[in-house]
Amino acid sequence: MNTPAPKLAARYLASLAGIILVCLSLAFAFNALVDPLWYFSGNQLKPVNFAFNERLSKPNLIAGHESEYDCVIFGDSRVTLLPEYRIKGHHCFNFAFSAGEINEFLAYAKWLKTRGLDPRLVIVGVSAGNFRQRPPSNNIPDFIRENSNPSPAIIKYLSTDILAMSWRTLFGTSPIDRYYDADFHCRVAVTSTYDPRKLIRDAHSGPFDNRAPLDQYRALRAVFPNAEFVGYTPPISAYAILDYEKIGWLSSYTKALVDAASVFDIYWDASIPSSITIDPANTYDGTHYSSTVNAKIADRLLDNPGPIAIDLKHVTADEALATYRTRLTKYHDTMQAHLN
Questions:
Q1: What does the alpha-carbon distance between residue 256 and residue 206 come to, in Å, rounded to a whole number?
Q2: Taking the model in full, what pTM does it have?
Q3: Cβ atoms 121, 90 nearer than 8 A
Q4: CA quadruple 98, 103, 109, 114: dihedral positive or negative?
Q5: 114-171 tens-digit pLDDT
């Protein structure tokens, strides 16, 4: 006897639904194991976590654990490499992300505060690029602006796009020149050495004359008024500083940093020419420095980093500029050897 058409259709739909449910379950399980957006404990299949979108992944990582931290770090991709676990006397969360800007740090700080983060220490890696005349970035996720929760993993991890991220994490290469280890500590993903003959002027090249960001740094401080507010400039190649001097930007660069320092309780400038920044072996691109260099900065950031940084809280802009020029003279011969 033939099965009625309605029953056949019902069986077909039930089978199709079952297949879809199994596929979705497998996709979610696979994505959850690799965890490319850091909702859980990171990649359980390899000790590597790629940074597909740190602006989304880091909120997922800290969500529900805000009260565990008494310190938060903001900054751009250079600051992601600062080993937060080496900041003495504190349990820090490194909230830095690629191309991070001060307007973004302010938005994320407000989001963190509404979720209960009450740090004793706030560390900000200050990029002089924030003081160039350029429009602010517009990369702040809606849930950050709205002070709401991140999208749940059950929604994100049913996506084929996320499935592609998981596959790449296991069998491909990092989408950026950094990755995070099993403990979510940022590591350099490339092995190349910087060629100082290649200039590192960015697409927004120009002097550092915009002071509007100072109000945003003050607003960031006001979000956590009881925290010690520590700023630092991450190292950049001394050859970039030499380039700034040659084209007439160095004065505006040092003045921007001295002006920024006035907002902080402590401010160290590690971008001044030093034995660290004249050695191309310490960096792969002139702006992102090795784990060894960043460990030295982190170990003494609250104290005194020594000759690899200068205190900008107690100098004038003219004194800072003079110190930069003295350092360029001091290292002239070594730098010329690398440039020839």
A1: 13
A2: 0.93
A3: yes
A4: negative
A5: 999 999 999 999 999 999 988 777 789 999 999 999 999 999 999 889 999 999 999 9
